[in-house]
Amino acid sequence: MILRTRRLDLRELTDDDLPALRAILQDGDTMTAYEGAFDEQMVRSWLSRMRERYRDDGFGLWAVVLRESGQMIGQCGLTRQHILDEDVIEVGYLFDRAHWRRGYATEAAAGCRDHAFTALGADRVWAQVRDTNIASMNVAIRLGMTVRGRFIKHYRGVDMPHLAFAIDRPAE
Ligand SMILES: CC(C)(COP(=O)(O)OP(=O)(O)OC[C@H]1O[C@@H](n2cnc3c(N)ncnc32)[C@H](O)[C@@H]1OP(=O)(O)O)[C@@H](O)C(=O)NCCC(=O)NCCS
């Protein structure tokens, strides 16, 4: 167990999460900001990349489990990223469409933001958001983040304008 919030438990992803991961990563609507659904091989490399991150960094995107049912409903966590020419820590979130708009992303991401400050000693936590992704921007705003810059991300052969949101470690 990595962390607990009011309704959610966050833990590392395992092979047992593959069906729930497919429900997220192979859904065209969920993956709009990522230029569409992943195929099976992309799902498997996504999971092995997370395992590499756990091993190398000690953190990555984690499985988000609804405590009352034990169901895996999303992914949220922290990853190392290169944003606006800096090596930074980012909070990321992707949830199963069946569970959107109940505050789960904000709740999980707030837990991860605080974990970055307290357990990892980060001075700033970032979120990179495609400029068309209103839901994600709303989560970043709910986390207390503000826009620090803009950049173009090249992904799956597409130039994607992004906003770089961030929040600074609160004063003690
Ligand atoms: C972004 C995402 C994680 C949000 O998950 P969620 O659990 O629905 O978010 P929350 O319920 O915590 O909502 C956070 C805020 O965003 C708003 N919001 C959620 N979905 C929205 C949408 N589609 N359009 C506009 N606002 C939206 C909520 O109303 C809430 O604001 P409020 O507190 O003012 O009401 C989810 O839409 C998702 O998985 N999207 C696909 C993956 C993705 O794009 N991830 C982000 C990559 S940067």
In short, what is this structure?
This is GNAT family N-acetyltransferase. With 172 residues, the protein is an alpha+beta fold. 29% of the residues lie in helices and 37% in strands.
What's the CATH class, please?
Alpha Beta
Query: How many strand segments?
Result: 8
Kindly state the percentage of residues in helix: 25-40%
Q: Quaternary arrangement of the chains shown?
A: single chain
- The first-to-last residue Cα distance is 27 Å
Bound molecules: coenzyme A
As a whole number of angstroms, the C-alpha radius of gyration is 15 Å
Largest sheet: 5 strands, antiparallel
The low-confidence runs, each spanning 5 or more residues with pLDDT under 50, are none
Overall shape: it is globular
Q: From the 3D coordinates, which CATH architecture would you assign?
A: 3-Layer(aba) Sandwich
Mean pLDDT: 97
- Please identify which CATH superfamily we are dealing with: Gcn5-related N-acetyltransferase (GNAT)
Word description of this protein:
It is a single chain. This protein has 172 residues and is of the alpha+beta class. The chain is 29% helix and 37% strand. The chain is built from four helices and eight strands, in the order E-E-H-H-E-E-E-H-E-H-E-E. The protein has a five-stranded antiparallel β-sheet with strand order 1-2-3-4-5, sandwiched between helices. Strands 6-8-7 form a three-stranded antiparallel β-sheet. A hairpin with a 2-residue loop joins strand 4 and strand 5 (86-95). Helix 1 crosses helix 2 (40-57). It is globular. The structure holds coenzyme A. Coenzyme A is lined by residues 30, 33, 93-95, 100-106, 129, 133-136, 138-139, 142. This is GNAT family N-acetyltransferase. Residues 8-170 form the N-acetyltransferase domain. It comes from Microbacterium commune.
